[in-house]
Amino acid sequence: MAAGIAGGARFIGRVGDDALGAQLVAELVAAGVDARVQSAGRTGTIVVLVDGAGERTMLPDRGAATELAAVPPAWLDGASVLHLPAYSLTAEPIATTCRELVTEARSRRIAVSVDASSVAVLEAFGVARFRAVVEALAPDVLLANADEAGALGLAGAPLAPISVVKDGARPVVIVSGGDRPCRAVPVAPVAAVVDTTGAGDAFAAGFLVAWSGGAHVVDAVRSANALAATVLGAPGAGR
Question: On the CB side of 67, how many CA atoms lie within 13 Å of its CA?
């Protein structure tokens, strides 16, 4: 979705050397994404279960995705933000690759954001261990939902200068470092929530595109809320 609203976005990752991997890359390119991928092994899959309230549960089989390694520094050329999900920081060798990318991004003054992604992922990896990983990365932005923020203790110890905590239909809370007060940004009502799949990714896209473009953090959250709302009314992850 970032490609559609920003005029360009890049995906760095690894897919299998198979028909599914080729199809996924083709779909990214068709959506306007600059896809920089390695192809080897078997493409991963995710089973998504959606309940009557539209809430989803994901059962991932990551396949080749965790094997991302030796990414050329040139793959960061022209980027304004490097965005990393927790999934990419909790398995090897992709986690080492991401740390190397962060070092390269810092040398280029490219902002870094991290998405906490999943309480299950955090707990399986170890919450304290994940906090240590994020502290070492020192991202500019951390995105989390209320459950992830609670597990990480963000209210008492933010892990980034800007931590953005989503909570469904309830206000988004912006937690800043130091002694700055938290700010709450209301979420406009959505007529009917059919499927929440992809809403978090849409939120991240809306926020990061606006924020990296110079918008105030509150306005960036409003943009994020508006984009996330567009995927809630229909099945699937949206575009």
Answer: 16
